[in-house]
Each structure stands twice: as C-alpha cells, then as structure tokens.
Predict the 3D structure of the following.
Amino acid sequence: MIFIKFVYFDYGGSHSSVLAANIHTNNLSKTKPFKEELINLPLFDKTDASDEGEMKYIGLDENQHEVYLIGTKNGNFTNAINNITSLLGLTNEYVFIGTMPYVNLILRIGGFISRGLSMPFIGRPLVLAGVLAAYPALVTLVERVKLENIGG
C-alpha cells in the first residue's frame, strides 16, 4: 500500500489550510466547531512570514496517511508543485490541495488584519466569522479529496 502525503495549502498557512488539514486528520469534526476549538488549534491564526513555504506536519488520517499544510503566498503553487512531483516520480505519493477557493471576503480581511498587520485582537473575530461560514465547504473538500485518493 502506498502511503500518500496530503498537503493542504493557502496563502498564509494560518486559516483554511489549517482547518482542512485538521478536518482530514479528524482533529475537527465535520460539524461546525466551537470558536474555542479553532483558537486552540496549534497553527490557527498563528503563522507569520517566516513560516512561508514551510510544510507543517498536522498528523495522520484514519488510513495512516500523513497530512501537512503549507502557506504559499502564491496562487500558482499547484501547477508548479505538480510539475515538480511528476519530474521526480512522486505523483502518486503527494496530493496537493488548494484551499484558497474557500476563503471568503470576511476571512481575507480578517486574515490580513490579524496576520498581515499583526493585530489579531481586531482581525481574529473576523477570521472566526469567515472560517465558520466556509467550514461546510471545507468539509466537503476534504471528503472529496479522501474519496478521490483513498476511496473514502
């Protein structure tokens, strides 16, 4: 059996990718979490520019596949990394999943204020509102990723 490494990515690696990776590893349930659960996630709304491009290990899923996240600051990350993994013959070992399409305007503004301007006391309430609105779509994304790559 090939053990796939799932890598969720977004702009900063602080919000949507953190949620998706933690949903994937069952650290978060498929129902909307409490705000306290989100705030207590190890990387939620806590990364900064020095974390850019660094893969962060989140855990194992129910099939013992490793799950990571990464902040990319680059919307073209998917094509680049898929070309690199193909050249290296790792296409079947890594799955890269972008979560930026699930980031709504409230989350973008809150993330910019919280992480970009280093003012989480202002941005975090917006971030929480944004991620709670996006949560059902992120659950659907993770379910689709699992179904397409490991059959459920």
In short: The CA atoms of residues 83 and 91 lie 9 Å apart.
